Amino acid sequence: GGSTTINSYNDIEIFRQRCQASSVMLCQIAMWNPSIFRKEGLLQLDTVIRRDMFNLLDAYKLGDTERDTHRIKLRHKMMLDFNLLTNHENTIDICPMTSGEIIEKGAKFIRSNYTSCDTPKSALNSYCIKEKLKRPIYRTEEMKPQRIFRTILELDNKRYTTTTWEKNKQQAEQGAAMVCLNSIGIDHLRLKYANR
Questions:
Q1: Of 73, 83, 113, 171, which is most buried with the most CB atoms under 10 A?
Q2: What are the angstrom distances between the C-alpha of 55 and each of 31, 62, 178?
Q3: What's the pLDDT band for 90 if we cut at 50, 70, 90?
Q4: pLDDT of 192 over the 80 cut
Q5: Which residues pair with 143 in a beta bridge?
Q6: Between helices 84-94 and 71-81, what is the axis angle to 10°?
Q7: Cβ atoms 173, 141 nearer than 8 A
Q8: Which CATH fold would you assign to the domain 102-194?
Q9: SS3 content of the chain, % helix, strand, coil (to 5)
Q10: Beta carbons of 78 and 66 less than 8 angstroms apart
Q11: Where does the DRBM domain lie (predicted)?
Q12: Model-level pTM?
């Protein structure tokens, strides 16, 4: 809860003492300007990016780091400076999807569209039985304090997830199952109505 009060290295210690904690974990302020950890004081963002983060950043991370200072113009200028406009497009062609990567698509599980027996998870389980595959493994992560969930589903050495976070674990699992079914070419909605 100190992201609004911590603006320098000295503020970290003041915050720690005020909370009577043995240590302090910084997330947002460190993301906005990683030089917060310098005892000598903060550096300008462009200096931090050029000196410390050039090899680590992509276009998305640059957007996070710059926060809200001249958002569009600065982002475009940084992307041009670091040649990220063309590099980002080229990496899609250079780096094909491997089994270790996650297939991520937009999918939203709407409970009212399904009965308890006709869900994406049940359709995927039926597919696994039919194809003699091991059952899918669901790993759900929770983002606190928002209490939102995202599931990564693993099936046949491939991983699938949604682009969005869900309000509960069950919806996150169903969404991941929808992505998996879509990726392997199964229309679970058509399957649902064909079974009636």
A1: 171
A2: 16, 12, 35
A3: very low
A4: no
A5: 148
A6: 60
A7: no
A8: Double Stranded RNA Binding Domain (3.30.160)
A9: 50, 15, 40
A10: yes
A11: 120-185
A12: 0.48
Q: Which amino acid is at 81?
A: D
**92-132 tens-digit pLDDT:** 333 444 445 888 888 888 888 888 778 999 999 999 999 99
CA 179 to mean position of chain CA atoms: 15
Count of CB atoms situated within 10 Å of the CB of 40: 7
- CA pair distance 33, 11, nearest whole angstrom: 14
Q: Which tens digits make up the pLDDT trace of 29-66?
A: 777 778 888 888 888 777 777 766 555 555 555 555 55
Quote the CA–CA distance of 16 and 188 in Å, as a whole number. Answer: 52
Q: Which two tokens stand for residue 79?
A: 């992307």
User: Which pLDDT value is given to residue 133?
Assistant: 92
Question: DSSP for 15-27?
Answer: HHHHHT-S-----
Q: Are 84 and 138 in contact (CB under 8 A)?
A: no
Q: Quote the percentage of the chain above a pLDDT of 70.
A: 67
With CA atoms as reference, report the closest residue to 27 among 152, 144, 168, 149: 144
Q: Quick one: DSSP state of residue 162?
A: E
Q: Concatenate the DSSP letters of all residues of 132-159 into one string.
A: TPPPPEEEEEEETTTTEEEEEEEETTEE
Q: Which of 149, 147, 174, 179 is nearest to 162 (CA)?
A: 179
The CA distances from residue 155 to 34, 98, 195, in Å, are 38, 14, 24
Provide the residue type at 172 as one letter: A
